[in-house]
Amino acid sequence: MTVRLDAPLERLVGQRTAAALGRLGLRTAADLLRHYPRRYSEPGRLTDLRELRVGEHVTVMAEVRQATVRQMRSRGGSMMEVVVTDGTRELGLTFFAKHAARLRYHESKLRPGAVGLFTGDVNRYRGRPQLVHPDYTIVGLDADDEEAALVEATRPIPIYPASSAIPSWRIQTAVRTVLDPLRPEDVPDPIPDDVRERHGLLDLHTALRLVHAPYTEDDHRRARARFVFEEAFVLQAALARRRAELAAVDAVARPGRPDGLLAAFDARLPFELTAGQREVGEQIAADLAAPRPMQRLLQGEVGSGKTVVALRAMLQVVDSGGQAALLAPTEVLAAQHVRTLRALLGPLADAGTLEAPDVATRVALVTGSQTAAQRREALLDAASGRAGIVVGTHALLGEQVQFADLGLVVVDEQHRFGVEQRDELRRRGGPTPHLLVMTATPIPRTVAMTVFGDLEVSSLTDLPGGRAGVTTHVVPADNAAWMARTWQRVREEVDAGHRAYVVCPRISPDDPEDKAPADDADLLSADEDALLFGEPERRRPLRAVLEVAEELAAAPALAGVPIGVLHGALPPAEKDEVMGRFARGEVPVLVATTVIEVGVDVPEATVMVVLDADRFGLSQLHQLRGRVGRGTEPGLCLLVSSAPEGTDAATRVSTLAETTDGFRIAGVDLELRREGDVLGASQSGTASSLRLLRVVRHADVIAEARQEAALVVGRDPALREHPALDAAIAAWLDPEREEFLERA
Fold this sequence. Notes:
Layout: H1 9-13, H2 15-22, H3 29-33, E1 39-41, E2 57-71, E3 78-85, E4 90-97, H4 104-109, E5 115-125, E6 128-132, E7 135-138, H5 146-154, E8 157-159, H6 168-179, H7 193-198, H8 204-212, H9 217-247, H10 261-268, H11 275-288, E9 295-300, H12 306-319, E10 323-327, H13 331-345, E11 362-366, H14 372-384, E12 387-392, E13 406-412, H15 419-424, E14 434-439, H16 445-451, E15 456-460, E16 470-476, H17 480-495, E17 499-503, H18 545-554, E18 563-566, H19 572-584, E19 589-592, E20 605-610, H20 618-625, E21 635-641, H21 648-658, H22 662-672, H23 675-679, H24 699-715, H25 723-732, H26 735-741
Helix pairs in contact: 8-9, 9-24, 9-25, 10-12, 11-12, 16-24, 21-22
């Protein structure tokens, strides 16, 4: 029979099985064939039961040690208890029935010495792990005949990502139903023949057979290597095609002028630009002077001076008769940007006043919380062109916000915005504006090639002079003496005229611990260390801003010290007031959520205490630490953690204490986090996401695929000669994946 890849699974495997597969996001033949095994059980190799976690849905290979059937006194009926082992640890299997006779089927198969695959949800009963009514298959017993049993017993057994609705071996049966009649012509290969030959890769048909039904370990390894390259190649071809499309789009060249606003700004700068700022500034200036839209990512360490570089780019556009829009993720950061830009520009931001030079412009702020009068004035400044620079949050994206001549869009901390939001400003009619994306999260080369493959990347690696740096220490949360010293150090900094941040993961003690507040979306799950064997560790409740502020107000070490509170649930005007009082020193200690993570600049802040630091992401901790040590006084960051030694959480915290190298931190972060998080694919478990490609592990593959894709797209931009590749890109660019590609 001919298998169509777009055929619905109901036609191929039946409605009941298709419904169960649908819960895994598998709806067509192509979806099922691309549902690769998670791992393979090798003949004779049992699963290490130490890896099990409470609540996890698992498939394990184990040997039956004993099986007993007994009557239940308390509730009536019969129960069969089976003990399986990996040779060291034991796992219980429990089956219930009204009558003992109904358990004989299980008795006949689950005999001591039998080896099988067992699947179910792990729970704990009377201190021991167990699966209740697990699905299972016995190796060599559940085959069609003796010859098939012999083959099965010697082949790697694929273990698929499964669910309680359908176990791994039933997925395997469904896969074979679709795979066995498949012919090479049924699966057009998106990798051109010459590319495949150069890299020694299997063709698609062979790779599908060997990944799902391998005879040897080498079979499935070769198949997976082919699929890793394919994912990288299709992605890089999509990015290469997008680069070609953007290169063909017209934009207004914004070369600036020698005696304009930028020259006046440079003349009044009270400090020297770093060599990196000058070099990156020249790259951006050349991009802006070209008649095609700039597409550039500006990455730099926390405090490396990205704002000055972006401002100089905006001033060049203003000198060319255009306007610049700066999109910030929060009102706190938008207001901070306006204060910073106006302070840097001085009278150059006061166009229309007597003191302002002729070349001056205005900086307008557009947010959702402005009064009607403030908003009316800001909108008029933007629409008339009187404001050369317009700063705003999502409110900038509203239809009522109009520009006279939008020439540059600067997006700060781009990962906080969805693709529709980022693109809205660029669709306002007229020529496509230039785009500058800024991030303070250092991005390793492979991520830049993968996530930002259609952008030119500029990096600021040197810090402005005069900064004293930050020292970081880990404070054990359960060490009372260390905690007492922590608050004493805060008091010492306050007494020296400095400021202190205290960061908490929650706003209120009433917030559910498994759901972070809106401004703390990166808070990590607490269950990563819920080991099955041994007593589960009882975690203390997460610290909350409101309770910590109360505790510190009553703490002897901070007696008489005013304490402020800042979090995302406060009205915007109140947030601004709190930040202003903190900056002025009226409240020298600020207890806050991660709303202060990005861009907040108080040079007098010298100490930061992060409570429950092990519950934050590594890059997020790096961002938080960047809020202190921004002036001439040295900074101190104290990470309060209860993470057990050897866990990922402990690795995150200790890595931050060991280094301030943002690129090293980003690399460790990539290795610890799920790939979907890194790539911006929130649907990282669905059928449309990257399955095998890992941006750290497969750096060389990505580089090779990028080179090959550039050659293919360079010769055939519309991919008319490569219809299978064109179709693969189209399938990849569904709405979920478009957000990934449009991270620019």
